[in-house]
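Dear H.,

Thanks for agreeing to be a second pair of eyes. The structure we're designing against is below in token form, covering all 187 positions.
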């Protein structure tokens, strides 16, 4: 093996379409796992649910809506599971850049996720008897549960990205050098 080959970043960072697909699905799964464990984009525990909602969730007051989770500490953003089930791997491409897309395409579930990110919860009510539009939306800045923000995605996702790159680099080093090389990369 030539040392020049090891210094050629194009050879070391050569991603295949399969690398991007497999890596993208793993990153998406790790992001969902992070959310379900109550960890936000900054690596901190999600801010707590309101006392009323936590009590209702814990006591299964939403069974008629399809409630599957009673966990309240830490918040896991899972009541019926619909929002996180809609959080999916969408696609990947490899050119000069590696593009991995995942998220929510369902409008209703996306609104729920955006509400969690902004700290806004509830639904708009219809007009009252005087024709005024009343809102039943709780908007609290101290209730934000950010799953991604300003290029931050949280520790599980960051680790998954690093592992993806390490696996690809390790495989490419093995291709460049036919000798046995052990590459340790798990974080």
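And this is the sequence the design step returned. I haven't edited it by hand at all.
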């Amino acid at each position: 093996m030539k040392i020049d080959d090891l210094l050629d970043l194009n050879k070391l960072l050569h991603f295949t379409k399969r690398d991007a697909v497999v890596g993208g699905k793993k990153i998406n799964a790790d992001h969902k796992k992070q959310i379900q464990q109550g960890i936000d984009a900054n690596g901190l525990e999600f801010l707590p649910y309101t006392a009323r909602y936590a009590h209702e969730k814990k006591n299964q007051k939403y069974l008629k809506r399809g409630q599957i989770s009673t966990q309240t500490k830490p918040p896991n953003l899972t009541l019926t599971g619909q929002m996180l089930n809609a959080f999916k791997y969408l696609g990947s491409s490899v050119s000069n850049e590696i593009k991995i897309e995942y998220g929510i395409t369902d409008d209703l579930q996306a609104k729920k996720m955006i509400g969690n990110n902004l700290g806004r919860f509830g639904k708009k009510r219809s007009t009252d008897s005087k024709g005024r539009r009343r809102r039943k939306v709780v908007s609290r800045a101290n209730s934000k549960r950010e799953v991604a923000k300003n290029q931050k995605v949280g520790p599980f996702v960051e680790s998954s990205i690093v592992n993806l790159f390490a696996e690809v680099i390790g495989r490419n080093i093995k291709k460049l050098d036919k000798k046995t090389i052990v590459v340790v990369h798990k974080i």
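Two observations from my side: The chain has one domain: 3-105+147-176. Residues 3-105+147-176 form one domain.

Warmly,
E.
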